[in-house]
Backbone:
């Protein structure tokens, strides 16, 4: 049986990624690799993350060296399945031409990258990836936007159609938040599903977006909701780090904001300049501070969550998965117990904080993929 | 939604949106609409480089062409600012400040102090600066140090389209007089710019590249040149931190000091003439505040102490280039 | 109301006299206090010119703005700036109108429409254009007055402002207080045109010349040009021919003057004496009433001096404040 050669290339994590630095190889030349194994760490402008192998095989060449800054789709290494000679591998490396980045054309990128839905709450930006039969809808949390799913969009799109939206009051062109409450946001997302013609979806909600997902499911499962994944969600218990929320809202400079954002990760070193700048860009838009203040007071009045409905998990009639970073400093992972008691599957991810979907992206991606597959079956 | 806009478009949009938001904002300057009183088209120019093109169509008589009388209309903008308006006056080329400087440095800058804190003068004076436009000695200067020298003035100098829009909106909303510089060579450079209004606070330098071996402090056109130098140096294993000051008064020395405390080496890059320049100011402050952190003498890369020459062959030598910046970094690192 | 030959009512005339007399006593006292060494810095006295400021300001409200000159005390008092705060300011006291940070040449009170005396000759003219522009945009009929001396009437920024005000049709009146001397230099020599009326017409606006020692003449002429400005008729130039009793600044030996010139001015061209004669002669106001005002004006100035003398100097903590509204 003739062998096959598969290139490992620099991934494109998110629309703005143009290049990445190979910070560390996690495997050695000659290792047998299975699809889904973490093979190297890559740092981008936004964040560092592990690259998972998309195929299986023996790692026959480490092409990229640690420290190399390489463009998206550059050759990093070579996987081989079956019998292939060294000469053939050399020829493959020699002859490898990185395919052109199809998003390079600016006009085209605009068209492919984002879509907009006109809803009662205003114009909502969203992104769509993949062409799977099942649709996964990603709902970010307080102060976030659809880029919070940077490391999840493409991975989940391998099996499903993935839709990620900006909640009202969030993203680069924030609309006013008509009703700054969990039910209010649930209504807005529901409107969005209609406007974007998402008939049924597997909801994945992070943080405040988790509470929103649960509220939507409580109202519309199983007709419109096939499964629910709650990632470090609000809505399951009273506690929330209001100091973080207030710090996020009031920080006016990089110096003030950086230590606040460090609360989001188990490893504060992940909060780099670009990540802080991105949040500052959002916060400096006219009206955002006022809008976030109103939202914080609406959903976390007096430092406690207003909308706490762990019991809702029990009556949904669709499977519920709860994923939590063990070191979450925003919403305590202990809240997962209430969901477990109501029948949800619970996965606590060690070594990750509130942004577990970024910090442990491969693990979270495989959990969601499996959960969606089970629910769809 | 962020679009890729040129700095020219970003400045236009900032003026347009802020005028729509705040009816007290007016703009005045020579030919900022263009064609006033002429037999041909209105909005004929939109400024000599088209930066304000189209605004008079949208905002009517709030976009005011002026006679060629810098002293009168800059002074009128200042007087109007003390009387409830938020004027944005365009001085066109900063080189023209010679004929209206009294109104800027003796009037606008001093009202608040002279009047015991009772005056507010929310005026913005936009002006084009910088060399590389083949415009010779009277249309190419930076002159930034002359303005930073004056207490009571704020001095802003964006290096890209995103900063230009946010800093201009901040300047218009600021209640003190602001000199807002626009580098002619940067008008066509593009960056992602949000559709909506946003502000960037003053005295917040932007660390545009991180590095541990040397700190390059600059502003304006030489930010990109410093980044080019840093890119070349990285290939030699020298990692530079590049700081874009963004505002020159107030100035974010904290960010500079923090960086130099880490790198121990400082290169100040300034397109202005060297004597009493921003580069000299930053060098002196760092030397005074954290002498012990310095591993090598501070180096300055500036224009020479000459007027801006006309001949392209000479003008290209005049502006600090990536090669000169890189050479200065190598010298500090060699020490 | 008794019949009287003036178009101004009796109460207003009493107020006008009080203003003129307060300015006079204020300046006479400063003349003495400077000689005694009680005043830091230098002052430019308005004594002799009181009728112009007083008559013009009678047409203005707090909504109207004036840009004054280095010789600004009279404009300040006539525009309603507090006399005690002025005296404190001139002595550099914390109680001053500008906390002692401005001094004689920079007294301002924007709440009264007084945009500041000005140490730079002619610099107020563009500022008045700006105030006029703001009034025009507000559409409330507000006007702005730019005061300049005959000397500053030759400054580029003043001449540019005449043109700009005419081009933009601004509600601005340019008042040239022609006291015959730019510092020590004669207006006859330094102003090339024969009359300010000609200069005004060169900028496409009406020009009027009045005897600045005649309160009633100034009042009438100013009333016309200010009304014109309020109604959208655009700018005008009003020349007030007047005399200053003291030098350019206190300490000026005034060797440029003719022998006996000042004595003649005080005897025959004192605007307050002329006013007094007119109103008493017409039987509108009695000498006794005016004497009472004289005493009250003197008392007010004395009280202002006492107040200023007793007031503290600014402290070291005041040195670096009030430069910016905010400075990160």
Residues:
């Amino acid at each position: 049986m003739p062998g096959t050669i598969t290139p490992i290339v620099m991934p494109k994590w998110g629309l703005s990624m143009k290049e990445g630095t190979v910070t560390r190889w996690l495997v050695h030349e000659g290792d047998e690799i299975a699809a889904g194994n973490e093979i190297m760490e890559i740092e981008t402008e936004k964040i560092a993350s592990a690259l998972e192998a998309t195929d299986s095989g023996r790692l026959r060449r480490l092409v990229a060296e640690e420290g190399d800054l390489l463009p998206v789709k550059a050759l990093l290494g070579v996987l081989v399945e079956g019998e292939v000679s060294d000469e053939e591998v050399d020829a493959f490396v020699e002859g490898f031409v990185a395919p052109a980045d199809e998003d390079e054309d600016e006009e085209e990128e605009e068209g492919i990258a984002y879509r907009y839905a006109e809803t009662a709450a205003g114009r909502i930006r969203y992104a769509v990836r993949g062409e799977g039969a099942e649709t996964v809808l990603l709902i970010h949390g307080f102060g976030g936007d659809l880029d919070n799913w940077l490391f999840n969009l493409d991975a989940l799109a391998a099996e499903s159609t993935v839709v990620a939206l900006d909640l009202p009051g969030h993203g680069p062109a924030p609309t006013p938040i008509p009703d700054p409450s969990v039910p209010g946001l649930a209504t807005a997302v529901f409107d969005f599903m209609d406007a974007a013609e998402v008939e049924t979806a597997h909801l994945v909600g992070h943080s405040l977006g988790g509470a929103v997902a649960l509220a939507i499911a409580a109202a519309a499962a199983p007709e419109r909701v096939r499964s629910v994944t709650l990632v470090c969600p609000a809505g399951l218990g009273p506690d929330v780090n209001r100091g973080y929320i207030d710090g996020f809202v009031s920080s006016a400079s990089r110096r003030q904001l950086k230590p606040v954002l460090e609360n989001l990760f188990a490893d504060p070193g992940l909060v780099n300049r670009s990540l802080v700048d991105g949040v500052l860009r959002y916060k400096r838009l006219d009206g955002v501070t006022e809008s976030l203040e109103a939202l914080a007071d609406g959903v976390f009045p007096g430092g406690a969550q207003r909308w706490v409905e762990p019991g809702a998990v029990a009556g949904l009639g669709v499977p519920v998965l709860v994923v939590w970073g063990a070191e979450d400093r925003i919403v305590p992972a202990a809240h997962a117990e209430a969901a477990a008691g109501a029948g949800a599957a619970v996965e606590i991810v060690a070594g990750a904080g509130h942004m577990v979907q970024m910090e442990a992206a491969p693990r979270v991606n495989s959990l969601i993929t499996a959960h969606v597959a089970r629910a769809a079956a | 939604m962020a679009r890729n806009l040129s700095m020219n478009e970003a400045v236009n949009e900032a003026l347009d949106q802020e005028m729509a938001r705040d009816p007290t904002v007016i703009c005045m300057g020579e030919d900022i609409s263009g064609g006033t009183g002429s037999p041909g088209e209105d909005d004929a120019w939109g400024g000599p480089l088209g930066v304000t093109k189209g605004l008079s169509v949208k905002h009517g008589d709030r976009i005011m062409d002026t006679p060629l009388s810098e002293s009168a209309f800059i002074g009128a903008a200042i007087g109007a600012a003390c009387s409830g308006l938020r004027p944005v006056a365009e001085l066109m080329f900063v080189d023209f400040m010679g004929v209206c400087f009294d109104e800027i440095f003796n009037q606008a800058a001093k009202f608040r102090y002279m009047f015991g804190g009772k005056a507010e003068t929310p005026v913005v004076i936009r002006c084009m600066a910088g060399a590389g436009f083949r415009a010779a000695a009277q249309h190419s200067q930076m002159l930034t140090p002359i303005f930073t020298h004056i207490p009571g003035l704020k001095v802003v100098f964006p290096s890209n389209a995103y900063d230009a829009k946010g800093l201009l909106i901040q300047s218009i909303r600021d209640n003190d007089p602001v000199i807002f510089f626009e580098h002619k060579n940067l008008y066509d450079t593009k960056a992602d710019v949000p559709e909506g209004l946003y502000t960037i606070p003053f005295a917040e330098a932007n660390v545009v590249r991180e590095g541990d071996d040397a700190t390059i402090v600059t502003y304006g056109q030489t930010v990109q040149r410093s980044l080019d130098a840093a890119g070349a140096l990285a290939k030699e294993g020298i990692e530079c931190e590049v700081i874009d000051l963004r505002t020159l008064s107030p100035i974010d020395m904290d960010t500079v000091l923090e960086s130099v405390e880490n790198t121990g080496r400082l290169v100040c890059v300034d397109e202005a003439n060297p004597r009493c320049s921003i580069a000299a100011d930053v060098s002196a402050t760092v030397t005074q505040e954290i002498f012990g952190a310095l591993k090598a003498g501070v180096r300055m890369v500036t224009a020479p102490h000459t007027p801006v020459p006309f001949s392209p062959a000479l003008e290209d030598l005049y502006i600090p280039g990536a090669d000169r910046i890189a050479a200065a970094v190598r010298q500090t690192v060699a020490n | 109301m008794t019949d009287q030959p003036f178009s101004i009512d009796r109460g207003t005339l009493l107020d006008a006299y009080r203003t003129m007399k307060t300015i006079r006593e204020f300046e006479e006292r400063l003349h003495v206090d400077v000689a005694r060494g009680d005043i830091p810095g230098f002052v430019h006295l308005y004594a002799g010119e009181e009728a112009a400021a007083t008559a013009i300001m009678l047409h203005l409200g707090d909504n109207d703005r004036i840009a004054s000159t280095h010789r600004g005390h009279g404009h300040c008092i006539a525009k309603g700036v507090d006399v005690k705060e002025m005296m404190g300011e001139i002595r550099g006291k914390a109680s001053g109108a500008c906390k002692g940070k401005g001094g004689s040449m920079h007294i301002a009170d924007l709440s009264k429409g007084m945009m500041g005396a000005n140490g730079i000759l002619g610099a107020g003219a563009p500022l008045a254009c700006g105030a006029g522009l703001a009034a025009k945009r507000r559409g409330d009929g507000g006007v702005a007055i730019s005061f300049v001396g005959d000397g500053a009437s030759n400054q580029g920024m003043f001449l540019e402002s005449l043109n700009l005000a005419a081009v933009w049709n601004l509600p601005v009146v340019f008042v040239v207080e022609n006291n015959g001397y730019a510092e020590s230099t004669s207006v006859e020599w330094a102003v090339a045109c024969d009359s300010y009326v000609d200069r005004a017409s060169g900028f496409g606006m009406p020009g009027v010349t009045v005897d600045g020692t005649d309160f009633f003449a100034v009042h009438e002429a100013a009333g016309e040009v200010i009304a014109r400005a309020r109604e959208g008729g655009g700018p005008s130039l009003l020349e007030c021919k007047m005399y200053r009793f003291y030098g350019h600044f206190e300490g000026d030996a005034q060797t440029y003057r003719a022998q006996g010139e000042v004595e003649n001015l005080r005897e025959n061209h004192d605007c307050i004496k002329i006013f007094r004669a007119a109103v008493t002669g017409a039987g509108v106001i009695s000498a006794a009433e005016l004497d009472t005002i004289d005493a009250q004006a003197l008392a007010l100035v004395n009280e202002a001096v006492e107040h200023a003398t007793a007031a503290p100097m600014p402290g070291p903590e005041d040195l670096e404040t009030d430069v910016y509204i905010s400075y990160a």
